[in-house]
Amino acid sequence: MTPDEYVEAVLEVVERIPPGRVMSYGAIAEFLAEASGRCSPRQVGTIMARHGAAVPWHRVVAGGGRLPPGHEGRATELLRAEGTPLARSGRVIMTEASWWPGTT
Question: How many domains does the chain have?
Answer without folding.
Answer: 1
